[in-house]
Amino acid sequence: MDGTTVGLCAFGAVLGLLALRVPIAFALASVAATGAFVMFAFRTGSFTPERAINPTTSLVFSNFYDLVHSYDLSMIPLFVALGHIAYRAEITTAIYQAARVWLVKVPGGVAMASVFGCAGFSAITGSSIACASTMGRICSPEMLRLGYDKRLATASVAAGGTLGSLIPPSVLFIIYGIFTETSISKLFLAGILPGILSLVGFLLVIYLWVRSDPSAAPAFDGKLERGDRRRAALAAWPACMIFVIIVGGIYGGFFTATEAAAICVAVAITIGFLQRKLTIQGLIHSLRETAIQTASIFLIAASAKIFVAFIALTGVANGIGEAVTAANLSPFALIAAIAVIYLLLGMFLDPIGIMVLTLPLMIPLVESYGFDLIWFGVVIIKLLEIGLITPPVGLNVFVIGNVVGKSVRIDQIFAGIMRFLSVDVLVLLLIMAFPIISTLIPNTMR
């Protein structure tokens, strides 16, 4: 049986199962195992299932074992734990509180503080959806209470939550680095400037929104006590220190990303107990949540590894590469086509699912064109970030919708998102046109 046909049928089967709401891990693993069995059974020309059992089980279990025992994968539970512990210790919310005090007199200051809070949370947790969920509970209800436009109060947090995909550390960068065998440390550093660009763009959207419609963000009518700004800034030092340890340590070559994660977990626990904001019960609860979230990510990643091995067996990636080469597409046309594919998938699938489903096909293509995989990784993560707020199924939008309940309709959140989405597209175009934005910092590291 032709391998390319089997591979293409497998992709169709996975998409069909996902449309039926089958979990991504089970869809990938079941289709890969079935497809590999068919390939091995027809290897001699006739259908001989008894000869397919051993090679199929070997493909499934060896790839599952190799992925789960990957050293780089160990940083995922560490960074997930860091996020939960830092939240319980009130380290992540301190950035928001500091920004709120400093920007309270600026038009739209609370919305801007929310974006800063999301950036600070992202710099510790690495998860966009977790960022939107956590910061949404803190920021959106407060802005609604202050009389902010419902669209601004929700869309600013939904968009700000996407910064977790770019600003290091990022779970998506870790998974991308593992599957493409690129340096995760360099990927983390490559996301800094694009993340800052996105942050500045979101702040500009809020500024222009409030300037054109002052009623969208009521002016602050209270007054600050003397020393409030200083105290708020000082309270944010733990979050700043953790970010410096991660970025400074990796950039300076003092330790790897995994070592940085372990050190920061220890630092967060120590600070939490010393400040008496973290309890034993809170730590246990954080570790329990970490175990659940990590198990989910590991299962998806391991299933994806099996699927990648199956796709390599079919040769479909080489077939598509040859077809693209024969079509003589320009580098710009190829990247544009990839962007369209990811934006369309982003409307319906979660970021991890999109990545593990598409990387087996995309990486051989971009390598044949000589693209820098670090730069391409930033482009992919930015596309996935945009997918989190793209209608009709922007995950971050629905997360915020669940947080605010019936007080704000989903269509109102999407209406506000469109302004932030335009900035995201602009940043994406800049990253595509000027790869140095992504490669400048990692190329200068030790």
From TrEMBL:
Listed name of the protein: TRAP transporter large permease protein
Subcellular location: Cell inner membrane
Keywords of this entry: Cell inner membrane, Cell membrane, Membrane, Transmembrane, Transmembrane helix, Transport
All copies of domain TRAP C4-dicarboxylate transport system permease DctM subunit, residue ranges: 11-435
Protein's organism: Roseibium algae
Domain of life of the organism encoding this protein: Bacteria
Annotated TM spans: 152-176, 188-210, 231-251, 257-274, 295-317, 329-349, 417-441
Record family assignment: Belongs to the TRAP transporter large permease family.
